[in-house]
Amino acid sequence: MPIIVNLDVMMAKRKLSLNELSERVGVTLSNLSILKTGKAKAVRFSTLEAICKALDCQPGDLLEFTSEE
Fold first, then answer.
1. Can you give the residue range of the structural domain that contains 30?
2. HTH cro/C1-type domain: from which residue to which, for each copy (predicted)?
3. Does the residue 67 lie in any domain?
4. Contact between 64 and 3 (Cβ < 8 Å)
5. Is 18 a member of any domain?
6. Does some domain include residue 68?
7. Of 21, 52, 54, 58, which is the most exposed, with the fewest CB atoms less than 10 Å away?
């Protein structure tokens, strides 16, 4: 998939565990895990907003586009 999710990188920079992020964002651990591993097919803007608030980052810090050539 050409969209790469860098949630694990941002969590490591903020020294935040998946459990802590789940509590702060209000998203289940399993759904955050799916997003973190890049297996998610979609993400709601409200979820992205909550994650950005919790990690003090921009959406571009979490999502990256790479062309498949």
1. 3-60
2. 7-62
3. no
4. yes
5. yes
6. no
7. 58
pTM for the structure as a whole = 0.89
Q: What's the number of domains the chain is made of?
A: 1
Banded model confidence at residue 2, pLDDT cuts 50, 70, 90 = confident
| Alpha-carbon dihedral sign for residues 6, 37, 3, 1 | positive
Nearest-CA neighbor of 36 among 18, 49, 60, 19? 18
Name the amino acid, one letter, at 22: S
Give the per-residue SS3 of the chain: CCEEECHHHHHHHCCCCHHHHHHHHCCCHHHHHHHHCCCCCCCCHHHHHHHHHHHCCCHHHHEEECCCC
For residue 65, being part of any structural domain is answered with no
